[in-house]
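URGENT: need a sanity check before tomorrow's submission.

F., can you look over the Helix-turn-helix transcriptional regulator record below? I want to be sure the sequence and structure line up before it goes out.
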Amino acid sequence: MDRAALADFLRRRRESLRPQDVGLGPGVRRRAAGLRREEVASLALMSTDYYTRLEQQRGPQPSDQILASLARALRLTADERDYLYRMAGHAVPDRVSAMSHVAPALQRVLDRLDDTPALIISRLGETLAQNALALTLLGDHRGETGWSRYEVYRWFTRPATERAHYPAADHDRQSRALVAGLRDAYGALGAGSTAGDLARELERVSAEFADLWERQEVAHRFADHKVLIHPEVGEIEVDCQVLYTDDRGQALLVLTAVPGSADEEKIRLLGVVGAQDFAGGDR
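Structure tokens as predicted:
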């Protein structure tokens, strides 16, 4: 671990960012350019004291999880992320199989979306980032571990909770779409990839998945119109726009309702519901 190089890199990257680069307001007048240490710590979900010690060359060796959070908070490119890991004395994550590092370009767009649900997912359906409205509508899956990180696994192994977001009439279509998307990833990444391991695990634990997997349906797209259900707000009809990275390894999903419609009003209500939940400590 190169403490001096790590500390200098973190400080330089922090100072190069503006509040608006990470979705923050300009706030009061700043004495120096860049983000404050407490702002980076908040974005990385760690204490200000811990982050400060890293910048002052006094902190312990950060874990992989801490480094991933810092890379996301500081909007690092893949090359910058790799450098961060090396200076911290860690092996560099495999860019093909480890896609938890959010593409900075998608993150910048997500940071500017606060009036409609939006989230960033990996090619395998791992939730990488969500805005507040998406958290309220779909729940928070960013902390899932193991196979449960992937939407397709949760869909077939936890149907009671995962399918509650969709009308019963749409369950079959959603099942086929998720399996077809995994088949597409399997073809692109290979049988020995995480996609292959995930498919084999699902074949083992879900007869429903195994039946659909045998159909050999392949698709790499999202339904552009869907109905989602929130337990308090009810059904919401939305259109789904998708923005991919160049390698299609990650996608930003933006859910919008027809302007002036009752569904748009329900999305506004999600903001109220979410604020109440956060205030009450339920999330």
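My own read: Residues 278-283 have pLDDT under 50 and may be disordered. The beta strands are 118-122, 127-130, 225-230, 234-244, 250-256. If you see anything odd, call me.
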